[in-house]
Design goal:
- This protein is mostly helical.
- The chain folds into 2 domains: 148 residues, no CATH class; 47 residues, no CATH class.
- It is built from 7 helices and 4 strands.
- The protein has a two-stranded antiparallel sheet. It has a two-stranded antiparallel ribbon with strand order 3-4.
- Helix 2 packs across helix 6.
- The radius of gyration is 24 Å and the shape is elongated.
- It starts with a strand and ends in a 32-residue tail after the last helix.
Amino acid sequence: MRGIQGKCQNERYVPIHTIAEKLTEDMCSIIPAVHALSGYDTNSSLHRIGKWTVYNAITKTAKDLQGHFHYEDRDEFLVSARRFVLLLHGKKAKCLASLDDLRYHLATTTDKPSNQLPPTEDAFDQHVSQAQYQVEIWNQSHIPKPEMASPVGNGWRISESQELHPVYYTKESAPAEVRDITHLYRSDKTCTGQKFPCVVAGLSCIDICSCADECQNLNKPAESEGEVSTDL
């Protein structure tokens, strides 16, 4: 391996085979997957979960994860990736069924801010697609001209300017009605101004808003006779 230090170019020999011998076979089989999932040049990292945390986790759980990362099976890879991330959040988390369940558990039992919660299932699905695509490239690094699928549809998209961008999510992270409580308090109880979050967002006020009975931004009346609601 070569590295640049100052203005001099230094060469360094890294005996990968020696490192592989010291690691268990279970560890070696999952390292590509967990490395891509925990953050790489082409993939985002997990919030506040560094490589050292990941390494400590897989040294204890490598046998549980070994053989579960089927790189060619999208659904199996997603299941294993979810299991891996749940393991990173402790013993209680690994008993949960999804990251959405973990988000709910942490939000209702801890005081963690929203930016420290794990990703939603929707965002994680895109993250896994990007990680799996990267691992596929690594697994064919010994082939001179590997046949690779297009990144579009595998966690990536093409913009109008023909640039490649990662897809972070396809759904809203929370219902539009669920908003920061600190934004729900206002001095104008009628909610008729154009500076209030509900009005700006084009939403009706809800029960947890601080407005009183004189609020003029309440839910609209039900449909008149002859009209059928299509809301689910």
